[in-house]
Automatic annotation (TrEMBL):
Residues 384-395 have a biased composition (Basic residues). This is Molybdopterin oxidoreductase domain-containing protein. Residues 60-238 form the Molybdopterin oxidoreductase domain. Signal peptide: none annotated. It comes from the Bacteria. Residues 344-414 are annotated as: Disordered. It holds the Pfam family Molybdopterin. InterPro entries: Mopterin_OxRdtase, Prok_molybdopt-oxidoreductase. Gene3D superfamilies: 3.40.50.740. PANTHER family: NADH-QUINONE OXIDOREDUCTASE SUBUNIT G, RESPIRATORY NITRATE REDUCTASE.
Length: 414
């Protein structure tokens, strides 16, 4: 799982792929791609070198060719300064920057204005005209000038008592950046409402639980990573369902707003939601400013420690697998991948138990040395929650490319 990747079509029509990551994945090997080995946290240095043209190998020139793409995903957002460096690299090279989210609904949430600094249609909350357009569509005099709160800020405000009530829809606490802090905030909430499909850590704490429809029971729209709308109708009709009283979450929120008084949402069904989004349309003005987060100093591991980069397994311990033991049984074993040199230094044996949270089932989490990995290591998020302390040394070397399949793994600047 790479933090960033770049691709372009060669003169012969073949796709050239470069992956900025700790090790070569199966996908990179299958595509004949090139690994740009980066110790965890050094991704901004790599991207800066690519932007300045000082990185070794063919990636520097490939990024400057017609049709080049820079692909970033969830892990890039978790590395301080990586997204800022990715934007700078795209600007310097002329490559197109592409974000591919992990969750199916993330692109749609951005378009709906779920981020604290956005309004629907990608409108920046700080732009006066964007606020005027949205206020007119919503039938209110004006909107607040300041951005809203992100998830961490909402939970922080609940924990301190600044917010007395909380509505949570379909959130798995273990999937949040700081699950322990989230649990403390949920426990501190004066009144907690949960919109859910199955019991969870949130429903255990909720004052009111409102069951909502699953995706197959309601119509809606997904946006793919390109922003293309993919509307769908309910796969299961009311006469095919056992619980016909269960309503879509949009309808539940509409009724909650009516019960609270004040101006109603006037969004009783998906047709009304789509109509409002169509009236607003996409924002035609200037977008929000580019990220400007500087990279942080890479942690210097001490004796018995290692820096691990994390990624999500395609099937992890997600609650949507509840009741489908056959699907859950196909999960891959969670492993911490180390280069042979790092594994030898730390005394971790191949396929030896490395510690960490075990996936549901009887298979243990394990450590595996990886012949095409740089220093440091990569571990699934569920394994990183509890990890054995390993040692990680990185000599001061420059950045260079590595072709999967060779025995020597170049070490990178830390």
């Amino acid at each position: 799982m790479s933090s960033c990747g770049c691709a372009r079509r060669g003169a012969s029509g073949g796709l050239r792929v470069f992956s900025l990551a700790t090790h070569a994945t199966r996908g990179l090997t299958k595509t004949g791609g090139t690994l740009l080995p980066a110790a965890p946290g050094t991704e901004p240095q790599w991207l800066t070198a690519l932007a300045e043209g000082t990185a070794e190998g063919d990636a520097t020139q490939a990024l400057r060719a017609d049709g080049a793409l820079i692909l970033v995903g969830e892990r890039a957002a978790q590395v301080p300064g990586a997204l800022t460096a990715a934007v700078a690299a795209a600007t310097a090279t002329g490559a197109t920057l592409v974000w591919i989210p992990r969750r199916a609904g993330e692109r749609g949430a951005v378009e709906a204005g779920a981020l604290p600094g956005l309004l629907p249609g990608g409108r920046p909350a700080t732009d006066p005209r964007a606020r005027e357009e949205t206020a007119a569509a919503w039938g209110v005099a004006e909107l607040p000038r300041s951005p809203g709160r992100d998830t961490g800020q909402i939970l922080g405000a609940v924990a301190t008592g600044e917010l007395g009530a909380l509505v949570v829809g379909g959130v798995e606490v273990a999937d949040l950046p700081d699950p322990a802090r989230a649990r403390e905030a949920l426990d501190a909430a004066g009144f907690l409402v949960s919109l859910e499909q199955r019991p969870s850590e949130v429903t255990d704490r909720a004052d009111v639980v409102l069951p909502v429809s699953a995706v197959v029971e309601k119509p809606g729209t997904f946006l793919n990573w390109e922003g293309r709308a993919r509307p769908f109708e309910a796969a299961l009709k009311p006469d095919q369902m056992v619980g016909r009283h269960v309503m879509p979450d949009a309808r539940v929120l509409h009724m909650l707003a009516d019960a609270m008084g004040g101006r109603p949402l006037d969004l009783p069904d998906v047709r009304a939601v789509r109509a409002e989004m169509d009236r607003l349309g996409r924002w035609a003005g200037p977008y929000a400013a580019d990220p400007a987060e500087p990279p942080r100093r890479v942690p210097a591991p001490g004796a018995g420690e290692a820096v691990l980069a994390g990624h999500r397994l395609l099937l992890d311990q997600g609650r949507l697998q509840d009741g489908d033991e056959a699907l859950a049984a196909t999960r891959h074993v969670a492993v911490a991948r180390l280069s042979p040199a790092t594994a030898a230094e730390t005394g971790v044996r191949r396929r030896g138990v490395a510690g960490g949270a075990r996936p549901r089932g009887d298979r243990p989490a394990a450590a595996a040395d990886h012949p095409h990995a740089g220093p440091g290591g990569l571990a699934p998020a569920e394994l990183r929650r509890r990890r054995r302390r390993l040692r990680h040394r990185v000599p001061a070397r420059g950045v260079g490319a590595h072709r999967p399949g060779t025995d020597d793994v170049p070490e990178v600047l830390s």
